[in-house]
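Regression test attached.
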Amino acid sequence: MDIDRRQFILLAGKALVLTPAAAVVLARLAAGQAAEAPGYEMARHWWAMAIDIEKCIGCGNCVRACKAENDVPREPAYFRTWVERYHVPVDDPEHPLVDSPDGGFDGFPARRTADGQAKDFFVPKLCNHCAQSPCVQVCPVGATFDSPDGVVLVDKTRCLGCRYCVQACPYGCRFIDPRTRVVDKCTLCYHRITRGETTACCETCPTGARRLGDLKDPRDPIHDWLRTNMVQVLKPQMATHAKVYYANLDGAVR
Amino acid sequence: MESLLRGVVGFIYPNELELQWSVLIVLYPFLTGLVAGAFILASLERVFNVEAVRPTYRLALLTALAFLLVAPLPLQLHLGHPERSLEMYFTPHRSSAMAMFGFVYLWYLMVVLVVEIWLDYRRDIVLQARASTGARRFLYRAMALWSDNISPRALAIDAKVGRFVTVLGIPSAFLLHGYVGFIFGSVKANPWWSTPLMPVVFLFSAIVSGIALVMLIYMAGCGLRGRPVDMPCVDTIARYLFYAFLIDFSLEMLDLIHRVYEADESFKTLDFMVHTKLFASQIVLQIFVGTLVPLGLLALIQLTRLTELARRTIYVLAGCLTMLGILAMRWNVVIGGQLFSKSFLGYTTYKMGFATREGLLMALAVMVLPLLILWGLVRLLPPWDAGAGADDTGNGGHGAAATRRPPS
């Protein structure tokens, strides 16, 4: 091929400009399709969860339901939701005794040492679906992302399995699924809530300790709940704008 | 369950049972640190005209290249889906420190290091191509990009551009390793990592380890070739090593004192960890054996007059201990940062595999590989003074360097 320097520079310049453009277009085309939920408008929702510590009895229904609903590995190191049991001595609240045998999957065995001078309670945990999530910030390929309705989701076809998001989550809500080698976490049962149902954990909670709420729906009872309870989020100093609100949360909870 | 919980003390979040980043992620900052350090040593001669270290100039560049080529390997071995890793370049997430690091890496490899080495060696490569035949000739001609022009004017342009690239390379080397520190230092969820000092500490420890490595490789190279070690050269390198090490140690102590004095909510947890699970690797290996002892040895040389043999012995010893200390530092940052629960209520243990994908054997292979690559590079592009080999114009590497770069 006979090509002078000028032509070569022009050609190379075009290739340099067009290749990333083509990559961007391809990526847009290949991006995931809209959820199969006719009538669901993401922009009209802003999901959150309300948890009342005083109502949780540590039965583990939520943990079992979550694992069954979302095909979470049964092994003890993988949880989308789990329950912790706190035993806070009145004279030493800085050093609570905490346990979560198998994430609370089978409920909790009775404690051997019953101490009258202490507080005992259960704390259900799940992804906080932070509005400023550190996990979304650090994902190198954007596989973890915020959906417009306030849910932090993972595109499993894009995740590299680098585990940076697991390190960045202050709450320990993420794990690598050993079967797929990509990250997994609570999706707030996205497949259910976009169909107008509640999450598996909320549905199976016998005491109504955890309830899904839509902050953009003015008729949602979560507004009353937030107004009538003293609420707190986990690790507020992390400034992640967590959207899992706890009523009656003790300061000892980490 | 029983076996999983073995090694767990207190309470950790259930998902924390599995440690996320293995020994391979320890090697990654170690390797990139060696690259940045070796490059900074090389630029001492080229930019700051420290003539004494000239014998190590080209060796330092080749060392940097050999280690930089291997640096992404531990990451690839660690990824759940290495086949998707190029997505970091095609669909990068701009707010991710890790994604942006990919571009810093590529910039450093392709724009700084390869170009600088090529410009510096171009004359030698052309001469090799002229003097050889067959496949060897083809290889060198390809490396010269089929150019045969080594006229004085072309070489002058090479030298000019090369100097520009080196000047550009210094902030790039700082960026390369500072950025690695930022990847850890910006994780606010982890108090062991989250400090603005992290990039600076990483940078200076990188310079320390890179200088020590090139010093050791240079002395080993002299030994293998049966040539005498250029003592003014290693004396100068050791002096720079000493200074860089002092800054590095001061920064690390500043970080430590700040943590102890501030004693925030994580302090008790971290303090307990340093006194138990990290005691051997942090207090004994990193601070005592890997820092105070080599610093003392290097100080001894600055303060006393020792024989050449004694100095050489001390340099080898101090160099090896320094490398060990910096490796321990990387271990303590990466592994140490995962041994405590983010609930601050418990600890876990790192169990390193042996012949697994992220085990000890693989880690050793990743450590040895850059040395093999360096061996190949040295064969291909001899960095030694007298050894441009086939050109035999009586004007080897050193002479070429002298004609290329008149002392200013």
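Expected vs. actual: identical. The longest helix of chain A spans residues 5-30.
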